[in-house]
């Protein structure tokens, strides 16, 4: 028989206490073995190994199961931030990226980039920036998150502003010029303005990518930040002007301000100022001109002329004349550009007599009117109904070798058509086309309206087929005018044919087209067809105008279709 030995209670208590550390051991004990050491167990040994020239294999053999974290990696990198250790920091960064359970965040990237830039290892830094940017583009982070992180880590490593220029230039190199500009603006707002080289890199990419408007936006911002162009900048912007077709125009404008030749830099800045004024940002334009004048990047008489032009564009004639008078007292001589600016302002204001007298004065002092002068006057005369004066000016204009612009031509064609003299408008257009003028949709639309008014459907169709023959785009404006005026002429069959053509091309009928077809059908007594168009219009969630609705109701009353009236 087995006998039991009684173990003293004190002994059992001591045994249980000694076994307690092992009581929680289970299948997850392998994770405990791989427990992350504290920073003192890892940072110093890693830095020492790297100082001894350790490679990836050495690091892996010494630390086979280390659990890397952002904090741990950051501490190692910051311990290696001195320029002499920059290569070691890069080695550690690449080694740690091989860990399948660890991914570098933006912060790690930016810290090592700071270290590399400060050590002058720009090629390595740019390679990491490109990688960082690509990863950011593929994620849902903010467009400027790289710039934000670069800025937030600026004080951790040995700081140097060159890193911000490298960021902007890297964006440009990757042809993401909009992101480059966003980063540039963000950094400037926080006290780090990009260098001229960085601005030139953005301008060059914008120019090569045919982003002309964007190039002017960058150039304007550059001037605002008091970064002034060099020869390279001017060359790029001249290329932009060539691409957008404004170089010849600006050269002509400059020749009307001053007879002497100017350098390309003046032409570029003239174009910038005119763009700002034409966008209605007059005060900004004046400030920019003053800044350019201080740096001798624009000439005094050019600046004065542009300021007057800006005030005229705003319709502030009193301010324009005050400025003009003050300039004259300081020896400023008027020019054709300034006179034309005043003439344009008077024409917009409807003060045609004053504008005409100013043109006479202009000629009397030896200044020659040019195409813009005539266009202003002809458009102004047309708007106030002085059509004979407009046509006389046109004859004078042709003799001088100038042709109308689309805006003035549209104004004259429209007024002649409204007055029932569409034939004169057509003759004028024929003369212009023979001289190389290309009419726009608005001009053709107004001619159609003119022929619709005198009920000449065949002439309307001729205009349409002429546009087709010339390969011009026929958009909703002309399509609407065509259908409306054919209906006005009673040629419902042709109008319906073009409606079907529009549908076949999967284009959308607008409410004006439906209105025209409904009214045209009602006039012809084709009430069923009118109702079919009405139903289609409602299905497309379009509403007929009040006049169309009343014509439809009246027509149904006349044929006694009370049931359909209730449905409407």
UniProtKB/TrEMBL annotation:
Each PPR repeat, start to end: 195-229, 300-334, 335-369, 370-404, 440-474, 510-544
Stated name of the protein: Pentacotripeptide-repeat region of PRORP domain-containing protein
Protein's UniProt keywords contain Hydrolase: no
Protein keywords: Repeat
Domain of life (superkingdom): Eukaryota
Matches recorded under InterPro entries: PPR-containing_protein, PPR_rpt, TPR-like_helical_dom_sf
Organism: Asparagus officinalis (Garden asparagus)
GO process annotations (BP): Group II intron splicing; mitochondrial respiratory chain complex I assembly; mitochondrial RNA processing
Coiled coil: none
NCBIfam families linked to this entry: PPR
């Amino acid at each position: 028989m087995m006998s039991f030995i009684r173990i003293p209670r004190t002994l059992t208590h001591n045994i249980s206490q000694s076994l307690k550390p092992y009581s929680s051991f289970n299948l997850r004990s392998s994770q405990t073995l791989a427990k992350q050491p504290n920073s003192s167990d890892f940072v110093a040994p890693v830095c020492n190994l790297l100082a001894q020239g350790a490679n990836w294999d050495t690091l892996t053999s010494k630390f086979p199961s280390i659990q890397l974290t952002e904090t741990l990696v950051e501490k190692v990198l910051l311990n290696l931030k001195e320029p002499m250790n920059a290569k070691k920091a890069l080695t550690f960064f690449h080694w740690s990226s091989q860990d399948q359970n660890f991914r570098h965040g933006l912060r790690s990237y930016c810290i090592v980039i700071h270290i590399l830039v400060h050590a002058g290892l720009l090629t390595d830094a740019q390679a990491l920036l490109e990688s960082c940017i690509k990863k950011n583009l593929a994620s849902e982070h903010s467009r400027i998150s790289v710039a934000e992180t670069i800025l937030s880590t600026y004080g951790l490593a040995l700081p140097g502003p060159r890193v911000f220029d490298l960021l902007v230039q890297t964006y440009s190199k990757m042809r993401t010029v909009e992101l480059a500009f966003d980063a540039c603006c963000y950094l400037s707002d926080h006290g780090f303005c990009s260098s001229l080289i960085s601005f030139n890199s953005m301008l060059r990419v914008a120019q090569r990518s045919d982003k002309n408007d964007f190039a002017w936006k960058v150039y304007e911002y550059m001037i605002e930040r008091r970064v002034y162009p060099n020869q390279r900048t001017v060359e790029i912007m001249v290329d932009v002007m060539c691409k957008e077709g404004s170089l010849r125009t600006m050269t002509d404008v400059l020749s009307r301000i001053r007879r002497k030749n100017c350098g390309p830099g003046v032409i570029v800045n003239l174009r910038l100022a005119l763009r700002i004024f034409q966008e209605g940002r007059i005060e900004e334009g004046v400030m920019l001109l003053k800044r350019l004048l201080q740096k001798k990047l624009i000439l005094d008489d050019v600046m004065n002329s542009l300021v007057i032009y800006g005030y005229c564009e705003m319709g502030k004639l009193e301010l324009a004349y005050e400025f003009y008078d003050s300039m004259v007292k300081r020896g400023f001589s008027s020019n054709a550009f300034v006179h034309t600016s005043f003439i344009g302002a008077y024409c917009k204001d409807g003060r045609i007599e004053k504008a005409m007298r100013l043109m006479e004065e202009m000629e009397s002092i030896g200044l020659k009117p040019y195409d813009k002068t005539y266009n202003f006057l002809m458009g102004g005369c047309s708007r106030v109904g002085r059509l004979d004066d407009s046509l006389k000016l046109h004859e004078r204009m042709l003799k001088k070798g100038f042709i109308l612009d689309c805006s003035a031509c549209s104004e004259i064609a429209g007024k002649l058509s409204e007055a029932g003299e569409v034939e004169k408008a057509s003759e004028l257009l024929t003369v212009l086309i023979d001289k190389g003028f290309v009419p726009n949709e608005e001009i053709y639309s107004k001619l159609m309206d003119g022929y619709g008014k005198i009920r000449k459907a065949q002439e309307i169709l001729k205009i349409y087929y002429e546009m087709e023959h010339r390969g011009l785009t026929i958009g909703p404006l002309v399509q609407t005018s065509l259908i409306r005026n054919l209906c006005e002429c009673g040629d419902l069959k042709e109008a319906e044919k073009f409606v079907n053509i529009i549908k076949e091309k999967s284009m959308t009928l607008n409410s004006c087209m439906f209105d025209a077809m409904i009214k045209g059908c009602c006039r012809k007594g084709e009430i069923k067809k009118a109702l079919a168009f009405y139903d289609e219009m409602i299905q497309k969630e379009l509403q007929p105008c009040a006049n169309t609705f009343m014509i439809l109701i009246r027509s149904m009353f006349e044929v006694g279709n009370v049931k359909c009236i209730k449905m409407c």
